[in-house]
Amino acid sequence: MFRHIRLAALVLCWFVLPNAALAEEAAADRLRTIASEAYDGNRPGASVIVYRNGEILLHEAYGLANLELGVAMTTANRFRIASVTKQFTGATVMRLVEDGVLDLDANIRTYLPDFADKGDTITLRHLLGHTSGLYNYTNHDDYEAIAHTDISLQDTCAYFEDLPLDFPVGSEWSYSNSGYALTSLIIETVTGREFEDIVAERIFASAGMTQSQFQLAGQVMANSPNQYWHGENGFYPAQRAGISGHGDGEIYSTTGDLLQWYQALRDDRLFNAETRETFYASQILPDGRDTRYGLGLFHGRVGPYATYEHGGNVGGWRAYVIMVPEQDAFVALLANANDTDEGLIASRLMKAALGLENGASIEISLEQAALEGFVGTYRHGPGDVRRIRFEAGRIQSSRGGGNWHNLVPIGESRFMFQADPDTQIQFTDTGLNVSYRYGMDHEAVRIEEE
């Protein structure tokens, strides 16, 4: 009898194992199709890694690292990851908090006593969570004059130090590179060492990130692709982005190293589980609104699953990472041109990895008169206007004069973006509310056409 049981088990394995291998191969093919459609060919390219539950499903490069010489992209290429850097800055703070060197809720003037008094207590939690009210220095009218030059961390912080707060400390959420530049200066002050050396020691070394580093002034990064902008006449070399804020966007890394980062976080090799949860936890405003941002990572969703994610762009560099801890899944995408939506492509890759791509359509039909009723101008805030128009049988949305995006009706007054179904607009009696795939929801009030 036991011989028959063993024989049955062997037969079962013969069927199951090839089927599992075929499923993995099919998943890899789908992932490869998504990435190659966006980046393959005689154009700037990308390095992509997709991981799930102990397996690297895809780790490939597409397109060109150098258009002029026809040099192919490789997975070993190092890209500037721009604002993806912020999670590493936040993690460095958490290591110093765990060591008792920093306190998330202490007044930052404890560490920088000469920093301008803003009339209220600003903490590291405010800086990392984008609730400090500090003016985002990269939005300044004069910023373009220094955007392509190298300036010191001290001079960067002096650039915004005396500007008025955008709002009372802790009362609102507004993305600000200034908070991360100032955090970098605090880390240098309390440790007496260069910020980039502390990150390399406390994060890169602990995570096994051997190919990651900060670019220093005047340094040429080895194994780094050229970066490109796209215009009416095709691709052309992007102007070099300067070095200024360090902790807000200046790490260079590879897709392989970014997977090492995710696994180090998952395995609590950087700090303990309680500290990790503090790092992840979304910041809640006094009125109860959820910012959907932790201390360096956005909170989002892919299908039914919660994500931690962040993008980055500077010059022609584009970067995006998505983590789904519940499914032990991770995607990193690094590109060297500005003509693709790296967040959307990374989301599609994650959906494919999780088997979420082939859901049934939920589009409903609405009469033209109903659709035209939503046409108008909506204000999110000062200088921040979204317009809705009717075009070719659909309504479309454009924010801040940007591209027009098709909206698909999924309810009588609810629409999803055709290109990003997880971002949705709910129209109300007075305006609309945008529920993003990641980050804080935003309301807008309907106004007369400007």
UniProtKB/TrEMBL annotation:
Extent of the signal sequence: 1-23
Keyword Ligase: no
Pfam assignment, any one: Beta-lactamase
Gene3D superfamilies: DD-peptidase/beta-lactamase superfamily
Transmembrane segments: none
Residue ranges annotated for the Beta-lactamase-related domain, each copy included: 39-348
InterPro entries, A to Z: AmpC-like, Beta-lactam-related, Beta-lactam/transpept-like
Protein name, as recorded: CubicO group peptidase (Beta-lactamase class C family)
Organism: Parasphingopyxis lamellibrachiae
